[in-house]
Design goal:
With 131 residues, this protein is α+β, with helices and mostly antiparallel strands. 18% of the residues lie in helices and 35% in strands. It contains two helices and nine strands, in the order βββαββββββα. The longest helix is centred in the N-terminal third of the chain and has 14 residues, at 27-40.
Length: 131
């Protein structure tokens, strides 16, 4: 679940394609993606619908007993697999010794995920996914 992209094919009711201009109106899909992310994060770091990219800031949690700090962020990229609107979503999870949490290079990828994020993927699939 962590550190790899998973694909959600967006339900066609959340976007439309203008055949004349060739442009896609995905405003509803983007609003819903932001809504899902803001349930787990207080803010969005980067959001650019024109380039099809959303990223949250890092969310940190210290596990004092274990001497570790865990951090997570989510990246969403728009793609058009098979002509359909799809979102590529990645939950990045990294861990570092608690004493070195201020050093970016101390963090390494881990498959551990905070309990708060266990439902993130299924929520994207349920709320945005094709029915």
């Amino acid at each position: 679940m962590a550190n790899s992209f998973f694909t959600v094919k967006v339900d066609k009711s959340l976007y439309s394609d203008d055949k004349k201009t060739g442009r896609r109106n995905a405003e509803n899909a983007w609003k819903l993606a932001h809504d899902v992310l803001l349930k787990y994060f207080d803010e969005i770091l980067t959001s650019d619908a024109e380039s099809g990219f959303i990223q949250t800031p890092w969310l940190y949690k210290n596990y004092v007993e274990a001497g570790k700090t865990l951090r997570h962020r989510v990246t969403v990229k728009e793609s058009n697999i098979g002509g359909d609107l799809t979102f590529q979503i990645k939950l990045t999870s990294e861990i570092a010794p608690i004493q070195a949490r201020s050093k970016v290079e101390a963090f390494m990828e881990t498959n551990r995920v905070m309990k708060e994020f266990e439902t993130l993927i299924s929520e994207f699939q349920t709320r945005l996914g094709a029915r």
